[in-house]
Amino acid sequence: MSLTAPTLDTGMAPVTRTTALQRAVRYEYRHLAALRSTWILLGVIAALSLVAGLATPIGLKPGEAPPSWSMVTAFQMDALSMQLPLSALLLLPLVTGPIATEFSRGTARTTWLTLASRRTAYAAKVLVGGALGALSALGGIALASAAAAVALAVSGKAQPEWAQTLADLLGFVIFMACWPVIAASVVALVRNRVAAALLLVLWPLLGERLAGLLLGFIPGLGALADWLPFSAGRAAMAASLDTMPESERALMEAFVGSDLSTSAGTAVFIGFTTVLATLGAWSYIKKDAH
Hints:
Layout: H1 17-34, H2 36-54, H3 68-75, H4 86-105, H5 108-115, H6 118-154, H7 162-168, H8 170-190, H9 193-216, H10 229-236, H11 246-256, H12 262-286
Helix pairs in contact: 1-6, 2-4, 2-6, 3-7, 4-6, 4-8, 4-9, 6-8, 6-12, 8-9, 8-12, 10-12
């Protein structure tokens, strides 16, 4: 005679780790989509992309095609001269909000209890943020490309080498996919939205420049400046520099601040993003919310 306990069939599928992550991702997506600020910032990025595309024929002679490097520079929204893409700065409030708001309003514990896993909550936030960054970059490139193609055709200018131009923008898309993960991870470590935003803006603009200068004064360590994370990120977006005129290439190489190749810069930046995401996950998962 079997003494096994009866089981209750509720008609509901068990909640696995995969389905929990899917629900968390769906929640984060709906949360961002419901915010008016999300659409305002994405609208600004779209408008700037259209302007960049429509301005392509300016300065060109009839029948002349714009060089690939000028197209890449315009579509990236000054990613090299400003040290960060303008679209990255615009997305900063969105990608820091999900984690910063939890800690500032004391709702992190509620989130963890609802999802039954802090790991799931963190993974959903960085996945949705990374997708937002990548899709905003791809959408901006698509809008800018379409506007540029129409503007060049209407104005009687030749079309650029689109295959080369779009291939050179791959580093920009990768940077924009990594940027929200970096931003969310910094917020999880610092636990202060203002401090995290200042760090994310000032370190690429000034901090790495000063660090590179200091490393140059230390014998044997000067080459490490090329491997600083955002210098490597700019190198990842500088695939078109080889096609630039010599007179302008020196200035842009100075803005990049790294002699790494595009592939090496991409690998370093992805590695930096992975390490920072791991540290952010440890802080978010292991420490108690304040």
